[in-house]
What does this fold into?
Amino acid sequence: MRKKGAFALLLVALCGVAVAWQNSGAKMGGIKLGDRMPEAKLVDLNGRARSLGSLRGKNGTLLLFIATRCPVSNAYNARMAKIAEEYGARGIAVVGINSNVTEPADEVKRHATEHNLKFTILKDDGNKLADMLGAQVTPEAFLFDASGKLVYHGRIDNAQDEAKVQSHDLRDAIEAVLAGRPVAKAEARAFGCSIKRAS
It folds into this structure.
């Protein structure tokens, strides 16, 4: 009986992830490719108000929607840290956004320290930025070029298990931006846990 109960719980959890994946293309307002990065003021993990404009990189800006409790987002922690380190040195600013109402700022700060996430992370209270961009899941990436235009939206790569990755969608997009080329694959549906919105 216990096994059946555990299996039912696992099934419910997997369905939640599947639903989040299916709905990730849905827009709640949202922006389209070619649109400019919106201006917004969010609070960082030290309690300081930061504007997105002040965090832009000279060669581009990457906004990553992340979570502390989502197993999919957590599977990407090391990859996100590596992307931030490699491309931060090449003029791409990486900014993490936590829009989950269920994850308080102190938890987000502790999580960042534990997982060596050294890039700037902002708390999106009331999921205002998530709604502006149309972000649905964690992790989900929005890449803007040096002029502030959206040139890539979607997943980081094609597999939660790093050993199974065959398509480095986000890295390919960043490399195209740095080389001054159009992004060949500008959208790749993000998958993960749904953002836990305040409303």
Notes: The helical segments are 2-23, 71-75, 77-88, 105-114, 128-133, 169-179.
